[in-house]
Design a protein that fits this description.
- The structure is a single chain.
- It contains 11 helices and no strands.
- By secondary structure, the protein is an all-alpha fold.
Length: about 280
């Protein structure tokens, strides 16, 4: 038994290594495709800031390799985004064999919903939050103060907060999963709406840029997404236990065996009657 468990564990490790290797190769291929367009990608990301900068202000860099390293980092991020379908497929192919049929049916849509919400959070930050936040920060320039942001600092800022908004938009998925596995109850979540609002307020203050407008612009969609997650969690089918799945898996073979035995008995009886007639 120990030898079998060891072989199974080693087999899982080899399978995990193979899946991770495919994912890394896909990300590297995405990096190679993205690097020639890294400057264009950076200009797109810098557009919310450039549009609100005072006339004559522009992005700067203070060390010689700064721009090159920034383009490399940006190409890696872009390569990961391009390779995301392959990465998700490798993740799914690794965990799917260990799931029951109803778990696979429930988990597969959650992956696509999670990606959709993550991209939606990043787009919300890019088109709604960043222009207003940057306009607020740039408003302090004037007179002897001139806004001249650094290239790498700006990339770090926009990537960090884009990821923060993308993760914040995962709230419905988190609620559905926690309710599905039995950690939370829908009735408890309904009674705890005020605490959920407080948690969303704290999270928005931590994740958003340090201004009240950005905090409010993140707080509102976060709480709305909490209500969306609660809505779908309340409509989940009852969770089936492993014993029920095992019973379902064994019930059909048992019925098939019984049917075959009945058919064999009936055939034997008919054959006996034919011999008696003869």
């Amino acid at each position: 038994m120990d030898k079998l468990a060891e072989n199974t564990f080693i087999g899982h490790l080899l399978e995990l290594r193979r899946r991770v290797l495919f994912a890394v190769i896909a990300i590297f291929a995405g990096f190679l495709v993205s690097y020639p367009f890294s400057k264009t990608i950076y200009n797109i990301l810098a557009a919310p800031l450039i549009d609100v900068l005072p006339k004559g202000s522009h992005l700067i860099y203070t060390s010689l390799p700064e721009v090159f390293l920034t383009y490399v980092q940006l190409s890696l991020l872009s390569g990961f985004v391009l390779a995301l379908p392959v990465v998700l497929y490798q993740f799914w192919a690794f965990i799917a064999p260990g799931l029951y049929e109803h778990e696979r049916k429930a988990f597969f849509p959650l992956i696509f919903a999670s990606v959709f919400l993550f991209i939606g959070g990043m787009l919300f930050a890019y088109f709604i939050v960043f222009p207003n936040a940057f306009r607020f920060f740039v408003s302090f320039s004037g007179g002897d103060i001139t806004a001249m942001p650094k290239v790498d600092s700006y990339l770090s800022l926009i990537v960090k907060f884009s990821l923060a908004f993308g993760l914040a938009f995962q709230i419905p998925i988190l609620i559905v999963v926690l309710v599905r596995i039995g950690v939370l109850q829908v009735a408890t979540l309904r009674r705890s709406r005020r605490y959920a609002f407080l948690i969303c307020a704290i999270a928005s203050a931590v994740l958003s840029p340090p201004d009240v407008l950005s905090m409010v612009m993140l707080l509102i969609p976060m709480y709305m997404l909490f209500e969306v997650g609660l809505f779908f969690a309340a409509r989940l089918p009852a969770v089936r236990s492993a014993e029920e799945d095992t019973a379902d898996d064994t019930a059909e073979p048992s019925r098939s065996a019984a049917h075959e035995m009945d058919a064999a008995e009936e055939s034997f009886r008919d054959r006996g009657e034919d011999e008696l007639k003869k």
